[in-house]
Amino acid sequence: MLKKLWREKREGWLFISVALILFLFFSLYPIIDSLILSFYTSRGIVYKFNGFGNIKRLFDDQMFYTSLKNTMIYLIIQVPIMLVLAIFLATLLNSTKLKFKSFFRTCIFLPCVTSLVAYSVLFKMIFAEKGLVNNILMKTGVFQTGIPWLTDPFWAKVTIILALLWRWTGYNMIFFLAALQSIPKDMYEAADIDGVSKIKQFFYITIPQLKPILLFTTIMSTIGTLQLFDEPMNLTMGGPANSTMTISQYIYNVSFVYAPNFGYAATISYTVVLMIALLSYIQFKLAGDDA
């Protein structure tokens, strides 16, 4: 039976064998190995079984709570603003009355393909104490003194949120724009005949039709924010006083900056995995079966 099945399916297995081997070695094996590693503690290359000691340490780790709080602030503030802006821009670009659509689409999408290091350096220059933003604010009389964008805990978070909005709004806009273009025009024409206002059409036709894409972008943005590393690392290095440090940056510090402890870093990583799974499940439940 097995030999017959192998003869019938061997071509298919041979075609996927290379991808399967790569998946086993570069995806499945690291996942299993890191899970085992989370039960160990290490100093350099010396590993010692620690059982649930890393989990106990996690609950007592104030730095973890600080990084978790910072990450949740980015998630709660930045993601909703970004998605609202993305829907708004997609709606504008989907209008039949707008000219130069291709130009505007390219300009809005361009930030997400810009070099991370290049745009981080640019943002640090723009938001420096004597940078462009402060010069404009002071010359227009909005503020008498410059805002400490990168050296104050509150304003440093604001700067990172602005950077994230600049970089990723256009990326999400493309998904919404594609979804808008797939909505049948007959629905809007029927609504116009019935005298339905444009605002009601948006909330009762457009938003329900965007529900699957809205769920997708919300989950992907949540995952990306919980794994946020690049912007805080390049703009503020987690400062000032760890006020912008994220969970991913803390994992990096535990692994390579502080006394290296890969076992504890693996435990924190699986905490992020559990958070992503829980939040994704909640979002699926809130979206309902029709999403």
Secondary structure layout:
Layout: H1 2-37, E1 40-43, E2 46-49, H2 53-59, H3 62-93, H4 101-109, H5 116-126, H6 132-139, H7 153-181, H8 185-193, H9 198-209, H10 211-226, H11 230-235, H12 247-257, H13 262-287
Antiparallel strand pairs: 1-2
Helix pairs in contact: 2-13, 3-7, 3-10, 3-12, 10-13, 12-13
Molecular structure report:
This protein is an all-alpha fold. 73% of the residues lie in helices and 3% in strands. The protein has a single domain, classed as MetI-like fold (Orthogonal Bundle). It is built from 13 helices and 2 strands, in the order H-E-E-H-H-H-H-H-H-H-H-H-H-H-H. Strands 1-2 form a two-stranded antiparallel sheet. Helix 12 runs antiparallel to helix 13. 24% of the residues are buried.
Shape: globular
Determine the CATH superfamily: MetI-like
Distance between the termini: 42 Å
The level of helicity is: over 70%
Number of domains: 1
Mean pLDDT across all amino acids: 88
Strand count, sense and barrel status of the largest sheet are: 2 strands, antiparallel
CATH class: Mainly Alpha
- Estimate what percentage of residues fall within beta strands: under 5%
Low-pLDDT runs of 5+ residues are: none
- The helix-and-strand class reads mainly alpha
The number of E-state strands comes to 2
Strand order across the largest sheet: 1-2
Radius of gyration: 24 Å
Order of helices and strands: HEEHHHHHHHHHHHH
Please tell me the CATH architecture by its name. Answer: Orthogonal Bundle
- CATH topology name, in short, is MetI-like fold
